[in-house]
Amino acid sequence: MEVFDLNRKMAGVANNINQIARQANSRDAFTRAEAEQLTVEARELYAQMRALVMQLEGVAEEVSST
User: Fold this and answer.
1) CB under 8 Å to 36, separation ≥6 — which residues?
2) Taking CA 47 as the corner, what is the angle to CA 41 and CA 7, rounded to the nearest 5 degrees?
3) DSSP string covering the chain, please?
4) Structure confidence by residue, pLDDT tens digits, 26-63
5) 16-23: long-range contacts at Cβ-Cβ below 8 A with a sequence spacing of 24 or more?
6) For the chain, is the Cβ count within 10 Å smaller at the N or the C terminus?
7) pTM above 0.85, yes or no
8) Residues 6 or more apart in contact with residue 17 via CB below 8 angstroms
9) Angle CA 37–41–47, to nearest 5
10) Rounded-to-integer distance, Cα 7 and Cα 51, Å
């Protein structure tokens, strides 16, 4: 997993949130399905971000020990 790929995914989730917020404001509604989909996307993104952080921490430890 690359940083650029993760950044692209984060931008996609942010865009989805923005679109749903715009729709919710215009129709005064936010469906359960929309909330569930955002939750799934956010959890997947969090897991990927956490994996990347752990990977970067490992690299930092290797660099500092040499």
Assistant:
1) none
2) 70
3) --HHHHHHHHHHHHHHHHHHHHHHHHHT---HHHHHHHHHHHHHHHHHHHHHHHHHHHHHHHHHH-
4) 887 778 888 888 889 889 888 988 888 888 888 888 88
5) 16/41
6) C
7) no
8) 38
9) 145
10) 14
Report which of 16, 5, 8 is spatially closest to residue 40, judged by C-alpha positions: 16
Residue with tokens 């923005």: 18
| Pick from 39, 20, 45, 43: nearest CA to 31 | 20
Q: Are 38 and 16 in contact (CB under 8 A)?
A: yes
Find the largest Cα–Cα distance for the chain.
58
CA 40, CA 32: separation in Å to the nearest integer? 12
